[in-house]
Amino acid sequence: MRLALLAGLTGAISDLGVGVRDGALLAIEQARAAGRALELLEFDDAQRPEMLPEVALRIASAQVAAVIGPATSSIAQTWIPLAQEHGLLSVSPTVTSHDFSGLDDLFFRVCASTRLYATHSATFAVQRRGWRRLTLVRDEANAAYTRSWADFFLAQAGALGADVAEPVVYRGPLQPQQAHAALQQALVQQPDALVLVASASDTAMLAQLARRSPQTPALQAAEWASTDQLIVRGGRAVEGMVVSQYFDRESRTPAYLDFLQRFEQRFRRAPGFAEVAAYDAAQVLLQALQQQAAGEALKATLLRVRSFNGLQDPIVFDAYGDHLRPLVMTEIRNGRFSTVRA
User: Fold this and answer.
1) Helices (H) and strands (E) in the chain, counts
2) Going by fewer Cβ within 10 Å, which terminus of the chain is more open, N or C?
3) Computed over its alpha carbons, how large is the radius of gyration of the chain?
4) What torsion do the CA atoms of 228, 232, 237, 243 make, to the nearest 10 degrees?
5) Digit-coded pLDDT (tens) for 166-219
6) Kindly report the CA angle at 203 between 202 and 204, in degrees rounded to 5?
7) Residue 340: which region, alpha, beta or left (left: phi > 0; alpha: psi -120 to 50)?
8) pLDDT tens digits along 58-93
9) What would the pLDDT profile of 225-263 be if each residue is shown by its tens digit?
10) What CA–CA distance (Å, rounded) separates 147 from 170?
11) Contact at 8 Å (CB) between 28 and 64?
């Protein structure tokens, strides 16, 4: 049985793709150790949508049972119709744009959409932190995600009475001069907080520049930034930053603790949101393949079974393959993501 992995394994935001690969690989290796005949084939999209027609042909030719991926919304925007054309069922760990919600296709995901995540993040910013003036900076290179996230965040923040301005938009990956210009444009609005909807590396660069500003606004980042590279690259500049993510790093569920131990033994580092979500995505497919009836399409199996075991919460699909994965708010304290409890 072959499964394909589709993610950006090279390029400026490869930290996300590599995390997805490692989480999925651990699930496959565990299944093989338990006696299942499985192979995971890796396909690098390099975060370049123009490569996807050729990649789709290669994946289809490999006769895989399903695809784990893609990892970003900008890739998903091109991938979903191609996958439909080639009959490639895909389960994404980390694609969240609301653009893909409520569609009857071959695309499933183990996370919720930007509508839930950005709305929750805005409510936290305004009601929990009391920030009344908000400026948002987003990366147009992953516009399918960042535009959707920004729209929901700004709508909710405005509805709660916050003063929100038109977002500052750039195309990443950021260069220092470009980052400086974007930040100056954002700070002109004299915000209480800067809300960054960007990759970990771009968010870290913007945070470092913001900390040197006399205004020193508070900082908040969307889920995309919540890999360990944010802390590695941001250093002291990201201390105190609020970061939303869709798993609880402090969870004590037995399945998560077992995964944590196995992952650290295998890869000699701690897992982040991409690794956890990719492990869940792989497990959904492994569980579904075991329950697939003779002659039954895998999509039909997923929609018949609906509920699958996840590391921290059950993964329950609706009729369109969407799942309401909870959001967890964290704050970077002493060089680590600390869960903000209610």
Assistant:
1) 11, 15
2) C
3) 20
4) 0
5) 999 999 999 999 999 999 999 999 999 999 999 999 999 999 999 998 888 999
6) 90
7) beta
8) 999 999 999 999 999 999 999 999 999 999 999 999
9) 999 999 999 999 999 999 999 899 999 999 999 999 999
10) 12
11) no
Q: How many CB atoms lie within 10 A of CB 250?
A: 11
Contact 149, 118 (CB under 8 A): yes
What is the secondary structure of 82-125 as a DSSP string? HHHHHT--EEESS---GGGTT--SSEEESS--HHHHHHHHHHII
Q: What is the DSSP string of 124-151?
A: IIIIIS---EEEEEEEGGGHHHHHHHHH
Let me know: does 112 contact 120? Beta carbons within 8 Å: no
> DSSP state, 60?
H
Residue 165 pLDDT grade (very low, low, confident, very high; cuts 50, 70, 90): confident
